[in-house]
Amino acid sequence: MTISACLLVSCKQKDKEPAKSYISVVSLIRKQVAHVDTSLYPIIKIVSQDSLHHDTTYIPREQFAAEAKDFLEIPDLSEKKVAKRYTEEPPRYDEMLGRVIFKYIPVDPGKEEVKSQEFLATPVPGQDARINNVIIIREISNRDSFLQKKMLWQMDKSFQIVTTRQRPGIPEVTTITRVIWNEDPYQ
């Protein structure tokens, strides 16, 4: 009887565990994609491989969501079952940047491809902080290869994905893809 009472109390405590409410990268990026889809911005894609070869192209608006798919396919922390797999580091203020940094990391890093989701936000007195940048680190590793994507989304301006691939017996390849719609591409 004592064991069943303990199990009952334990189950009730799990039910009362507060729901995690995290910032959803996927929702933020969807809003950005919707905005760019209805804008008149020229969309420029610059791809450089190992800093040797640079390829610049204009992207049609209809193709923008496909270019942003790496951001749209990450786990959505607004979903309860996904939020359980992540934990939030205490927010910290970086004086040099003048930004508050929010960071979510997996509870079990070995089981998750997305190793961190980080937000840099500007504090606005009397309002919610305004998110400026989103930084995502994604790693896929198996016996035959290693793939890492370091992704940066600058709100209302551009995004960049640095992809590093490594395979046995083949030199590491680094590709930088930058998509720009509301800033000078040469800065």
Structure explained in plain terms:
This protein has five helices and nine strands. By secondary structure, it is α+β, with helices and mostly antiparallel strands. The chain has one domain (21-180). A nine-stranded antiparallel beta sheet has the order 2-1-9-8-7-6-5-4-3, with no helix packed on it. It is globular, with a radius of gyration of 20 Å.
Name some characteristics of this structure.
187 residues, alpha+beta, nine-stranded antiparallel β-sheet, disordered N terminus
Q: Can you write the helix and strand succession as a string?
A: HHEEHHHEEEEEEE
Basic shape: globular
Distance between the termini: 70 Å
Helical/strand content category: alpha+beta
Mean pLDDT: 87
* Oligomeric category: single chain
Rg on CA atoms, Å? 20 Å
Overall tally of structural domains: 1
Tell me the strand order in the biggest sheet: 2-1-9-8-7-6-5-4-3
* Count of helical stretches: 5
Helix content: 10-25%
Note the main sheet.
9 strands, antiparallel
How many distinct beta strands? 9
Strand content of the residues, in percent? 35-45%
Low-confidence stretches: 1-15
